[in-house]
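Thread title: Can someone regenerate the structure for this chain?

I was given the following input by a collaborator and told the matching structure tokens would be attached. They weren't. Posting the sequence so someone can regenerate them.
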Amino acid sequence: MVGDYVPFYFAALSPMMFAISHGRVPSYGTDVSGLIYLVTSTQELVAQGLRVLVTDRNAALGYAEFRPESESDDLVDWDLMKQRYWNDTDKYPDRRERRMAECLVHGKVPFAAFGAIVAQNNQQAANVEAVLSAAGTAVSVYVIPDWYI
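Best answer:
Regenerated them for you:
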């Protein structure tokens, strides 16, 4: 079941961040400044001994293709992942769902799998660094406002 997996998107400006910032998650609001990105790679997840699947589009769609990470090189539209805007068009009517391609990790992901954290602003980065310091954990924290809608 998809619900048994921890989902990751392959690029910044994620569909979920877009939904939140545009009020499509009413229980959250629209302020994304308190959200952070936990950054990892499929290679690191596999190195951690985790079961990793990759989809070609939103995993909740009944026609999404699932493959083990080791067989997924051509599954994700990497050019699309680099684009800032990814709405559907007449020429590409499924572009949005393909932008929602996912890396799915079964069960849970240990914090050691994350190599960096990205915050929207300096204040949020300082908050994250304080929490990490109190926990005795060192992870690089970056401020990249362009990753936020």
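The radius of gyration is 16 Å.
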